[in-house]
Design brief:
Helix content is 42%, strand content 19%. It is of the alpha/beta class and 303 residues long. It folds into 2 domains: 163 residues, 3-Layer(aba) Sandwich (Glutaredoxin); 122 residues, Up-down Bundle (Glutathione S-transferase Yfyf (Class Pi), Chain A, domain 2), CATH 1.20.1050.10. The structure holds glutathione. The site of glutathione has 14 residues, from helix 1 and helix 3.
Length: 303
């Protein structure tokens, strides 16, 4: 199989979620370090405009958003699973809750202290990404976020009083998903002190922190671009007739996140199933690329 390449950066929480899944499954993977803010000239040709991190690349196929990356990793490396038997829905729902609720209760708490020291280019970049919201004002949300964070962490801590991991005695997607926001808190000591008050949570945190990242080797961004250029997409057309929008294979569509980073990716529809939409694009200098997205968290429009 072609190499598994993760485009990421060290301090990216959503990448940390994927790195822990790689560790659990003992995956050999290559890490391409991408910029923390725009421009990202060695990422955008692969994604067709999508700017968020992490992004998974295998040859000329590129998976955008951790939701679809997790599905692909589970398909390629099914054992050990991140979906404990009988808890599949719980694992997926915990993942969505962690990304959309738990994570967003951590950012104001962290940036309340860090706002004064992060470069103004970072604040401007994130404000643009959030379409009009002023990221500098995130600190105003800190008091409410702190209250919610404490309640969320208490929910996890109570569960962890009775089980080693969140969905039983083995590591699952639920753990990877709830780990990354707590790991993000560690970027700022006062923020992390909120988590340190919970002893069961801390035991669990340290266990997962010690798992490492699997077998990883760095790769230069240019090498990843060359791999894309030298490969052809390996995705067969799979457009389900049962699709509620009755989109046809080959139709021109755009796919855009529904929460932030509203950069549409436009191409010909090649996959449209319950959980995935994928488009094929002709990228100048690279040739054909297929970009894969999850259905949850994205909008699809005919263009
Ligand atoms: N829903 C996305 C969220 C990803 C996300 O917000 N990633 C952050 C980094 S952890 C990001 O891309 N921030 C803006 C950037 O890096 O340009 C996912 O699950 O992958």
């Amino acid at each position: 199989m072609a190499e598994v390449i993760l485009h990421q950066y060290v301090n990216s929480p959503f990448s940390e979620k994927i790195r822990k899944i790689f560790a659990h499954k003992k995956v050999s993977w290559r890490s391409v370090e991408q910029p923390v803010i725009m421009p990202k000239p060695k990422l955008i040709p692969l994604t067709g405009g999508y700017r968020r991190i992490p992004v998974l690349q295998i040859g000329a196929d590129v998976w955008c958003d951790s939701g679809i990356i997790i599905r692909k990793i589970e398909e390629l490396f099914p054992a050990p699973t991140v979906y404990p038997a009988g808890q599949e829905a719980a694992a997926d729902i915990m993942n969505q809750w962690a990304d959309r609720r738990l994570f967003w209760s951590t950012t104001p708490v962290i940036f309340e202290k860090l706002a004064a020291v992060v470069p103004k280019e970072f604040i401007e970049d994130r404000s643009k990404m959030m379409r009009g919201a002023n990221f500098a004002e995130i600190t105003l949300m800190a008091p409410d976020a702190r209250n919610q964070l404490r309640a969320f962490l208490d929910i996890l801590d109570r569960q962890l009083a009775r089980s080693t991991f969140l969905l039983g005695n083995s590591f699952s997607l639920g753990d990877a998903a709830c780990f990354h926001p707590v790991w993000f808190l560690r970027a700022e000591p006062t923020a992390f002190s909120h988590a340190q008050k919970f002893s069961n949570l801390m035991r669990w945190f340290e266990r997962i922190d010690a798992m490492g990242y699997g077998d990883v080797k760095a790769m230069e961004p240019d090498e990843a671009l060359k791999i894309a250029r030298d490969s052809s997409p390996a995705t067969p057309v799979n457009v389900e007739a049962a699709d509620p929008d009755t989109l046809k294979a080959g139709a021109m569509v755009s796919v855009t996140p529904d929460d932030y980073g509203f950069d549409p990716v436009t191409g010909r529809l090649v996959v449209n199933t319950t959980h995935e939409v994928a488009v094929e694009r002709e990228e100048p200098g690279l040739g054909k690329i297929v970009n894969h997205f999850p259905k949850i968290g994205f909008r699809i429009a005919s263009v």
